[in-house]
Write a structure and sequence with these properties.
Elements: H1 4-56, H2 59-62, H3 65-75, E1 78-83, E2 88-91, H4 100-108, E3 115-120, E4 123-134, E5 137-147, H5 149-200, H6 215-249, E6 254-259, E7 264-267, H7 269-275, H8 287-290, H9 294-306, E8 310-318, E9 321-333, E10 339-348, H10 350-385, H11 392-423, E11 432-435, H12 436-453, E12 457-460, E13 468-471, H13 473-489, E14 496-504, E15 507-514, H14 536-541, H15 548-558, E16 562-568, E17 572-580
Parallel strand pairs: 12-14
Antiparallel strand pairs: 1-2, 1-5, 3-4, 4-5, 6-7, 6-10, 8-9, 9-10, 11-13, 14-15, 15-17, 16-17
């Protein structure tokens, strides 16, 4: 594309050339006419001198022809003497043919002009004539002739002078024009280039601002102000867009935006993870082709027909699971009540449903666990009131049962209170450095009797006496008692329970292993749930509350530790605890 500066310069040059050509032609014609007039005036003066000479020296017949020839040579002109009858008496230029037709016109009186020219042999010859008189009578005519070569040379010089002058003027005007156009067109070109860059979206483009504040300077300044404003607006828009996209992508719920024609125009990461497809497979396609859930498609169809907000809960298949979702479908209404589309929001409430179910199970389990000892105590109390108190043996037996059930009820309540305390946010461990050796010996002394009664071998593998860690010694003791008690309870007579303590770098690893009934693989993830029992009859008969492993898990996690389980049904189980030696206070 031709630059504005070039176009302006070309226009100025063309205009200048046209003006100079017209001026040159006008000056040429004026100078030509001026020179021609001067030329004929010269012929007229020379003719007057010759006429006076001829008249003074004997007229046409008496004048000396040699002198006339000399005059002609000096004047560079031809001399013709013609009598009144048109006869040529003298011709100083014999090589130039005589203009007989002009002589005839002069003699006959038909040509009143004193000067004229004729084209002879492709050569212009200019003539000037005058009358020769003797007294008052016309004796003849004197004609002076001059070939046009002199005029042509003069004209050529005139045109060369005009051309050179006008060419020099053109060169000066072009140079000045280039400088002027560069000065005034450069800011305009720069502003145009910046405007084009702004149109392309490059808001960092700037134009050169001259020190002299004129119209072009104001234009450049205005363009720069516009560019800065656009750049600020673009930055603000991009920042808002980034924030909006970050919010949409990380909102935690699945979002789907459907336009007024039913095509999906936006999805976020939550929905991509939900349906496990690429955005290219969903975007700008009709919702009824790409949304895999029939219930959701029907919900969208209903909102398109009613334009009313919808909210429902669905169980949707996600990968190999079935999850609960609270789905909200919101109509998008623009200004002037223009229908824009539908926004779908999927809230995953699976965990809430699980917590709700756990709460229900907890209430049911607590009610059941409390009901059993209370019913037993009530039944034996009523039996005693009805007369069994008189039987000393029955009285002692019933009171023992009531005491046993009361102890069980007390343990259940204590475990519930302990579990509630561990789950509180303000629960704090009493952390201090301690040695594991005295704790293990104390626990061994407490449980040896129970193990001996069941004919179970309770083995503690040797470990360094100075094995120390940071933590809550009371809670660590509670964990080990619960695990070892469970191992003894679920190990048949003649079995073995092992306790080992090892140091592994910055961790302490404690293992409780038994040869008991074991745990089925599908039950392992649930054994830390409250009131969950692998063998309910055995657990209840042993006096367990079903809360021991839940308490163990909370204490281990409070110490920033980890608990894993290895078990084979009929072969036994192993609980492995990993505690950091240096614990943070919680």
């Amino acid at each position: 594309m031709t630059k504005y500066r070039t176009r302006l310069l070309i226009a100025m040059v063309l205009l200048t050339v046209a003006v100079l050509l017209a001026l040159g032609i006008l000056l040429g014609q004026l100078l030509k006419n001026y020179y021609l007039d001067s030329y004929y005036e010269r012929l007229e003066n020379e003719s007057s001198l010759l006429r006076m000479y001829i008249e003074d020296y004997g007229g046409m017949l008496g004048v000396d022809r040699n002198e006339l020839g000399k005059f002609g040579d000096k004047l560079g002109a031809g001399i013709l003497l013609v009598d009144v009858d048109g006869a040529i008496l003298y011709n100083s230029k014999n090589n130039i043919s005589t203009p007989e037709d002009l002589i005839t016109d002069i003699v006959s009186g038909g040509n009143k002009k004193k000067r004229f020219f004729k084209l002879k042999d492709r050569q212009e010859v200019h003539y000037y004539w005058t009358e020769l008189k003797v007294g008052n009578d016309t004796e003849g005519y004197l004609l002076l002739s001059l070939a046009s070569s002199q005029l042509k040379d003069a004209y050529k010089n005139i045109w060369w002078f005009i051309s050179l002058t006008l060419g020099l003027a053109l060169a000066i005007i072009v140079l000045l024009g280039m400088r002027i156009t560069r000065k005034y067109a450069k800011p305009i070109e720069s502003a145009a280039n910046v405007a084009m860059e702004l149109a392309k979206g490059n808001y960092r483009a700037r134009t050169y601002v001259e020190e002299n504040i004129d119209e072009t300077g104001l234009l450049s300044t205005s363009i720069n102000v516009l560019a800065r404003n656009l750049e600020d607006m673009a930055k603000t828009r991009d920042m808002q867009q980034e924030r909006l996209m970050a919010l949409i992508e990380n909102i935690g719920s699945a979002l789907v935006l459907i336009d007024s024609r039913g095509n999906i125009s936006l999805i976020n990461r939550g929905y991509r993870d939900l349906v496990e497809v690429e955005p290219a497979d969903l975007l700008y396609r009709p919702y009824f082709e790409v949304i895999p859930f029939r219930e959701i498609r029907e919900m969208i169809e209903e909102i398109f027909m009613t334009e009313q907000e919808q909210r429902r809960q669905f169980i949707l298949p996600v990968s190999i699971e079935r999850k609960y979702f609270d789905v909200s479908a919101l109509p998008i209404i623009g200004t002037n009540n223009v229908w824009k589309g539908v926004l779908l929001v999927f809230h995953d409430i699976t965990e809430l449903k699980k917590l709700e179910q756990m709460r229900k199970d907890f209430v049911a389990n607590v009610s059941h666990e409390l009901k059993t000892p209370v019913t037993s105590i009530k039944g034996f109390a009523e039996t005693l009131i009805d007369g069994a108190m008189r039987d000393e043996k029955a009285l002692q037996e019933f009171l023992s049962i009531i005491l046993k059930e009361s102890d069980r009820l007390q343990r259940l309540i204590q475990d519930l209170l302990e579990l509630s305390k561990l789950e509180q946010h303000n629960f704090v461990l009493d952390i201090s450095p301690f040695s594991l050796d005295p704790i293990v010996k104390e626990i061994l002394a407490i449980l040896e009797g129970r193990a001996f009664q069941k004919n179970i071998s309770l083995v503690v593998h040797p470990f360094p006496v100075k094995t120390e860690m940071e933590g809550d010694p009371f809670r660590i003791r509670q964990v080990l008692i619960n695990l070892l008690s469970n191992a003894i309870n679920y190990t048949p007579s003649g079995g073995k329970v092992e306790l080992s303590v090892q140091e592994a770098g910055s961790d302490i690893v404690i293992s409780v292993k038994d040869t008991g009934i074991g745990i089925e693989e599908d039950e392992v993830p649930r054994i830390f749930e409250r009131f969950y029992r692998v063998d309910r009859a055995r657990s209840r008969n042993s006096g367990g509350t079903g809360l021991g492993l839940a308490i163990v898990k909370h204490i281990v996690e409070a110490h920033r530790g980890k608990i894993t389980v290895k078990s084979r049904p009929g072969k036994g189980s192993e609980f492995i605890l990993e505690f950091p030696k240096r614990a943070r206070k919680v």
